[in-house]
Amino acid sequence: MVLLFIIINQTLFDFEGKQTFYPESICAESTHSYNVLHYLINLQLPMNSRYLSGAVTIAMRSNMNNLNQIDLYLLGLNVDSVKVDGISATYSHIAETILVNLPHSYNQGDSFSVKVGYSGTASGNMGYLYYQSLHPISYTLGCPFAEKRWFPCYDRLWDKADYGVEFYITVPDSFTVCATGEFLGRVVSQGFATYHWKHNYPIAPYLIHFASSIYTTYSDWFYPAPGESIEIKYYLWPEDTVYAPTAFALTTDMIYFYDSLFGDYPFERYGMDVVNPFYYGGMEHQTMSTIHRQWLIGNDYYGMAHEMSHQWWGDMITCFGWQNVWLNEGFATYCDALYLERRQGHQAFINTMVGRLNNYISAENANPHSMYNP
């Protein structure tokens, strides 16, 4: 019963400081006209403003016969061109919706690709963010409903890109880019560097992420079995490396712990990028949790444990729609308390869970509302 109340509590007061109740009209993927297979994202970032330009190629499979139009979403940026299988296509872009007229019809099971060229200055209201902080920094934040503010996509949680995402991101060569998946290389030309990242696992659009700044790196390793290794890499400002050995001292223990409870770590690598300023305390981008700089400086182990547990609960297994996000957050809130128990004992776990229960009851008495709205 206590756990049930704690999970409900997450609907109102998520551990990371997120609002977690998002009514939305949704439909089953089987009723949608196509299925996203893969995103290929090419971007150029000047790193002196919120301006970005590039193209996204989306591999799709038709879910119906005689498919002649598809819908995508892009908000606050300009569509410059659309091609379908390399052929220019007509389209409309009204508010957030792009309607693409396919050059010919596709039948159920047919695969095709849509390439959208786009550019513009992001609003700064989620999506793509840029700040002149201690160092210039840009990063993406798609949770919730904001992935369409930085790249054209079909932004529904239930339509994961079956074969993942790939990035080619070009920045001035003094900057470093980190992103979802595995780093595959860096090519420098005429003062610019293009970073190549790739992730081959199913992924929901809001979990796709990159960040760029004057980063240095700090690494550790997780060994899931003899002869196997997974790199854990952190991206942080050079001035903050002094905090890294202490702040990240427990990360490998966390991953061993959750691996023992929930099964194998589900992806090819793990890491964290440190950002400031940041709307949240942390965000569970797939393979690359984003954390507030204050979590680094303050050694917020349990915030980091919360985000890591989302790799299983939220990323590998993703709720159907934002109405169900209490499942993601409820499991992760329970998981960070389990890690607290591992470090500080059972009474610390009980005290934390009871405290969260009391917070929920107080909040519900002050502002009653349901945790789910179909």
Counting structural domains, the number is 1
Roughly what percent helix?
10-25%
The helix-and-strand class reads alpha+beta
Number of strands: 20
- Give the terminus-to-terminus CA distance: 24 Å
The count of helical stretches stands at: 7
| Beta-strand percent range | 35-45%
From the coordinates shown, what is the CATH architecture? Answer: Sandwich
Helix/strand order: HEEEEEEEEEEEEEEEEEHHEEEHHHH
Low-confidence stretches: 1-28
Output the keywords.
eight-stranded mixed β-sheet; Peptidase_M4/M1_CTD_sf; globular; five-stranded mixed β-sheet; Immunoglobulin-like; 374 residues; disordered N terminus; protease; hydrolase; zinc ion binding; Aminopeptidase N
Sequence-ordered SSE layout with sheet pairings:
Blueprint (H helix, E strand, L loop, with lengths): L1 H11 L21 E11 L6 E12 L4 E7 L4 E7 L2 E2 L2 E4 L2 E10 L4 E11 L5 E6 L3 E6 L23 E8 L3 E4 L2 E8 L2 E8 L10 E4 L2 E7 L7 E7 L7 H4 L3 H12 L7 E6 L6 E2 L4 E5 H5 L3 H9 L15 H20 L1 H21 L8
Parallel strand pairs: 1-11, 17-18, 18-20
Antiparallel strand pairs: 1-2, 2-8, 3-7, 4-5, 4-8, 6-7, 9-10, 10-15, 11-14, 12-15, 13-14, 16-17, 19-20
